[in-house]
Amino acid sequence: AKRIPGTSLALAERHFEQMSSSALENEQALRKGIRNHELYLDYQPKIDAASGRLLGLEALARWQRPGVGLVSPVDFIVIAERTGLISELGAMLLERACRQIAAWRLELGACVPVAVNVSPMQLLNQGFPQLVERVLRETGIPPQCLTLEITESAAVENLADTQTQLQQLRNLGIEVAMDDFGTGFSSLSMLRELPLSTLKIDRGLISPLPAPDAVAVVTAICRLASALDLQVVAEGIETLEQANAARDAGCHALQGYFYARPLAVADAGAWMVRQFSN
Ligand code: C2E
Ligand code: CA
Ligand code: CA
Ligand code: CA
């Protein structure tokens, strides 16, 4: 069939070609970026709501892509998942975080738990608990120094497998947090069935604090978490009012720009030095 330029079909085809070629370029760039160490981790502090002390850090992936600039993890994690690169990337980031924990531990003689984000596909990889075990062994860090953050979507689609994987990770002595709690996937029964240690309440529920309806929701989540013996982290704290409301509602830990943005290794190290020197 002859194509008539300017018809919607021709436009759609051209759009499709552009999309798929840029998707391919993105995949190749990410592959190369992983090889060339263009990806790294920043670390965002989590604060103890009661004492104001540093309670832990969350490792957040960054990609400084040559000629493009800083690419959001939201964008490159999707590429990695779609192309199967996530296993390699996830393993690389986990090792990176654990080596950093080991370095801080050597320097400071102690550690605060560092949380590493795990994508659903990565978590459901058969060998994932074994990978974590190997990385802990090779870096020599105690399991209490590592937390894993998982999101609900994996669990919802595959509850039995998620349960098995998480139990193996808990058996290693690692804490597991449910990330983005309250964004839509999680059913309450799942909380009972999964061996979790922590709930992280999504920024979407924290931002409206101290509005009374938001206070009611966060308070209810904290009560539920307490009944299930789970710690609660409020994420996305940007103001003092939000911090106070989240603490009063029963959140144990607070995280957000109000305390600190995700920090480069050296700045995160300085926070830890302060933590262990007073
Ligand atoms: P997340 O795990 O929910 O991480 C929290 C995100 O909120 C981070 O964005 C963080 O920089 C941002 N944030 C922290 N405090 C505040 C605040 O007060 N206000 C606002 N507006 N934002 C705040 P980031 O670093 O862009 O990461 C986005 C998402 O990408 C993460 O959401 C996580 O789902 C994913 N991600 C990041 N690093 C990794 C990784 O190493 N592995 C995997 N699988 N996913 C990752
Ligand atoms: Ca997270
Ligand atoms: Ca989150
Ligand atoms: Ca989020």
The gist of it:
Helix content is 53%, strand content 19%. With 278 residues, the protein is α/β, with parallel strands linked by helices.
Characteristic terms for this protein:
eight-stranded mixed beta barrel, 9 strands, 19% strand, globular, binds ligand C2E, binds calcium ion
Biggest β-sheet strands, sense, barrel = 8 strands, mixed, barrel
Give the overall shape: globular
> Could you name the ranges where pLDDT drops below 50 across 5 or more consecutive residues?
none
Terminal CA distance: 77 Å
What pattern of helices and strands is seen along the backbone? HEEEHHEHHEHHEHEHHEHEH
Structure ligands: ligand C2E, calcium ion
Structural class: alpha/beta
Q: How many DSSP E strands?
A: 9
Share in β-strands: 15-25%
Could you give the order of strands across the largest sheet?
Answer: 1-2-4-5-6-7-8-9
- Helix share of residues? 40-55%
Radius of gyration: 21 Å
Number of helices: 12
Quaternary organisation: single chain
The averaged pLDDT comes out at 91
Domain EAL: 23-276
Protein name: EAL domain-containing protein
